[in-house]
Design a protein that fits this description.
With 244 residues, the chain is mainly α. α6 runs antiparallel to α7. The radius of gyration is 18 Å and the shape is globular. The N and C termini lie far apart (45 Å).
Length: 244
């Protein structure tokens, strides 16, 4: 779990730095930083997305996963969790809902949602957690921590303090992967990792599109696509064997 705590610490540190800088920014400069963060996010997402092995499986996973997420309203539920955390923080500080740590044009729940998805859907979360749990090799997670820390700076500067609270999701998600790594590792192949990475990359591209304001996409609703992608990778070869 050491690597998970380091990852959380990097995101918190990056968020604090981003918040300190954001207080000196004008609205125009904040918008520019958000646009830059959006472009960087899209680039990262595209690099991951092009690792797909089958564009058909990726397409079906995103469509089916998106429908499942819509029916479950995952995006709405995560946003509600963000609002609950925002209220708790505001009450603890004796403030109104508009937290003084962030400008009024920044949304705590929106920052929490997008940061949580960004920091957890990549292949580095999966592979790094497995290596940390099984081999005690923290290299990948430590590398991810550095990348997440720098992204947290730009996200916190652009969207606010909700970015720091994404560490709750990181702690639960990567912590569970690390603890369960011994059980899950035999079922994880290179193909599975590349396909999940591609699907996660597509979702990260959606976050970038949101940040630059091209379209409002409920990114969390596409999280089930990762599960659908895994099922396709596992069962499609079995189906092919039945018809050979």
């Amino acid at each position: 779990m050491l690597a998970v705590f380091v990852n959380c610490g990097a995101v918190i540190l990056g968020s604090i730095i981003g918040l300190l800088f954001s207080k000196k920014f004008s609205d125009e400069l904040s918008d520019m930083i958000q646009t830059a963060a959006g472009i960087i996010t899209i680039v990262i997402g595209l690099q991951m997305a092009f690792k797909y092995d089958s564009i058909v499986i990726l397409t079906l996973s995103l469509i089916i996963g998106g429908i499942i997420g819509y029916l479950m309203d995952i995006d709405g539920k995560i946003l509600k969790l963000g609002y609950v955390l925002e209220k708790l923080v505001s009450k603890k500080n004796g403030e109104n809902i508009d937290n003084s740590l962030e400008p009024k044009n920044k949304n705590f729940a929106y920052a929490f949602l997008n940061s949580s998805v960004l920091f957890c859907v990549g292949a580095m979360s999966i592979v790094g957690s497995f290596k940390a749990g099984i081999e005690k090799d923290y290299t990948i997670i430590f590398t991810k921590s550095i990348l997440d820390g720098f992204m947290a700076i730009s996200f916190a500067a652009a969207m606010g303090v909700g970015t720091a609270f994404s560490t709750i999701v990181i702690l639960v998600y990567q912590g569970l992967l690390t603890l369960m790594s011994g059980f899950l590792q035999p079922y994880v192949s290179d193909l599975l990792i590349s396909e999940v990475s591609a699907c996660g990359g597509a979702i990260i591209v959606m976050i970038g599109i949101n940040l630059i304001g091209l379209k409002k996409i409920k990114t969390a609703n596409f999280i089930p696509a990762l599960v659908v992608e895994i099922l396709f990778v596992i069962f499609v070869p079995l189906i092919k064997l039945l018809f050979v």
